[in-house]
Amino acid sequence: MKNNSSIIIGLQPRLLIFDILYSIKKFNLSFDDIYFKKLNQNKNISIEDKSLIHNVVLSSMRQHFHFNNFIKTYIKKKIKFNEYILLLSASTQIVYLDFKEYAVVNCSVEIAKIKKIYPGFINAVLKNIIANKEFLKNTKVNYSNFPEWFIKNTKFLNKHCKKNFVSTFFFKPKLNIFFKQKQDLLKFNTFTKKSSPISLVLNEYGSIEKLPMYNEGKWWVQDFSSMLPIELLGKIKNKEILDLCSAPGGKSFQLLSKGGKVTHIEKSKKRAMILKKNLLRLKLNNIENIHSVDALNYKTTKKFDFVIVDAPCSSVGTVRRHPEIFFRNNPPDIKKLILIQKKLLEKASTVVKKKGIIIYMVCSMLDCETDHQIDNFLEKNKNFTLNKFEKINDHKFFFKNEFFFKVTPCKYNDFYIDGFFAAKIKRND
Hints:
Layout (H helix, E strand, L loop, with lengths): L3 H24 L3 H11 L5 H28 L6 H16 L4 H14 L4 H13 L1 H6 L9 H5 L6 H11 L5 E5 L2 H6 L4 E5 L2 E4 L16 E3 L2 H8 L8 E4 L6 H8 L3 E5 L3 H14 L7 E2 L12 E7 L13 H4 L6 H18 E11 L8 H10 L3 E4 L17 E3 L2 E3 L2 E3 L2 E8 L2
Parallel strand pairs: 5-6, 5-8, 6-7, 8-9
Antiparallel strand pairs: 1-3, 1-4, 2-3, 9-14, 10-14, 11-14, 12-13
Helix pairs in contact: 1-2, 1-3, 1-4, 1-5, 3-4, 4-5, 4-6, 5-6, 11-12
């Protein structure tokens, strides 16, 4: 067998790639959860291999639409589930990441033996893939290739938005970082592009922890579209704010850095710890003001000036960062999510002050999670009305109308942004 050392070097990370992809698709897991679980189980994995695993898994989930077209064209045999996962990861490495063909083929054959997959079949298909590399590279994916459940829920999108969505999905997301202070942004020294007066898009970066000013707590990671609604709230200094779904904390960090007094609610103890860790690094106050409790069960006699509802949702607006949303066997349980969003809005209505504001947000653009959710709430709660964000005219691109902040994943200026929705609701009585 050729280049045995290459096999040994490359086999362990590629086995983990197989296991992660298999688990995501088979058991409908999130990439982050299974990725970090596998890394914790394999402490000897190098930084370089971690990067390889991360890159290949995410790229494979994005490119599986292209691979499916290849299968339809070139493979007559019905492919078994484990064969599909192995061939998908291998084809992604060969065609889209330009890894050395012999190394990928040899490792894939070894994995086939370990996973009790017929190695001869894997070898033959990969040779076919190599021979038709250009076909795979040039295969076009259209909006109609996306999952049926997604197409059904996005009939409202026009042709331009659909085209934008497709092109955005296949671009590897860059890192947008948000600064506490404008002067720190001006001092930041790396390959960047300014996305706003207080945020940057990083064109190139390695380990986040090794970037300038990270350990000093000068910035955090947050997409441009998700940070904008809080920036358009107006003055919140010394205002009492309740964040019902706090972790990982981007919106809370914004609120605290603008002088708000934030009470954090986070159901997950694990996520609450992450939030606390981030608050410590960023040297923001109210660290002790974190309640690890289900927001719907949170009891208080206090009323708040602002209540933030960054609700659980389908997350389709972030699919370019989380391609597993389209890769999993099962779609998001949208009906269940809509019910949770409804209950969170109802909870917010009981703890907001008279003349206070509820900010409802989701990283989705589906009507059922956005416009319709707000319309239904207002229909049942006549003492609430829609309220305008500040400086709408400066950010018309992001607004469906004068009240709804709503954007699909797309190219904005010279960088790509996630889909996001926000509405500002005022209590009148």
